[in-house]
Amino acid sequence: MKSKAQFYHAGCPVCISAEKSVAQSLDPARFDVEIVHLGEQGQRVGEAEQRGVQSVPALVLDGQVFHINHGADLAALK
Amino acid sequence: MKSKAQFYHAGCPVCISAEKSVAQSLDPARFDVEIVHLGEQGQRVGEAEQRGVQSVPALVLDGQVFHINHGADLAALK
């Protein structure tokens, strides 16, 4: 069964680079990766926060949050 | 052709978690992931540094460095 993974970002250059490289490099046999642009989907900032996301870009795999480099603090997106 | 990817870490809990989740989730059809433990292979700290790694855990994909969460600064491993 595939796991769902979320990649939260905000369109910043650091985010786009991480999306193209990391998020799109996950094993497609094991993960369905949902890309969430918090700049455009502000209503999902709360969801990201609840899951432990503190900054973007961030990848959530099996409930674990991995902050990748640093584009923007979540607070800046509210 | 497969790309070579390196995952640099230092054995810290944050590193191990990122290794198990992120590094081992990369598409095996596209990447050969080399795991480098800089705590045990101190002679490779210079190589990591030259590639732009500033802290561990870090993933290098196609020459791009992605720092994941934060376990330790590279300077602490010298």
Can you put this structure into words, describing what you see?
The structure is a homodimer of 78-residue chains. Chain A is an alpha+beta fold and 78 residues long. The first copy, chain A, has a single domain, classed as Glutaredoxin. Helices cover 19% and strands 40% of the residues of chain A. The first copy, chain A, has a four-stranded mixed sheet with strand order 2-1-3-4, with helices on one face. In chain A, a hairpin with a 2-residue loop joins strand 3 (55-61) and strand 4 (64-73). The model of chain A has no long low-confidence stretch (mean pLDDT 94). Chain A binds chain B through residues 5, 17-18, 21-22, 25-31, 59, 61-62, 64, 66-70, and chain B through 5, 17-18, 21-22, 25-31, 59, 61-62, 64, 66-70.
Tell me the CATH architecture of chain A: 3-Layer(aba) Sandwich
How is the biggest beta sheet of chain A arranged?
A: 4 strands, mixed
CATH class of chain A, named Alpha Beta
Gap between N and C termini of chain A: 34 Å
Ranges of chain A where pLDDT stays below 50 over 5 or more residues in a row are none
Q: Over the alpha carbons, how many angstroms does the gyration radius of chain A reach? A: 11 Å
Roughly what is the average pLDDT of chain A, rounded to an integer?
94
What's the shape of chain A?
Answer: globular
Order of helices and strands of chain A: EHEHEE
Question: How big a fraction of the residues of chain A is strand?
Answer: 35-45%
**CATH fold node name of chain A:** Glutaredoxin
**How large is the count of helical segments of chain A?**
2
Task: Count up the domains of chain A.
Answer: 1
Content-based structural category of chain A: alpha+beta
The largest sheet of chain A has its strands arranged as 2-1-3-4
Largest interface comes to: A-B, 21 and 21 residues
CATH superfamily of chain A: Glutaredoxin
Oligomer: homodimer
The share of residues in helices of chain A is: 10-25%
How many β strands of chain A by DSSP? 4
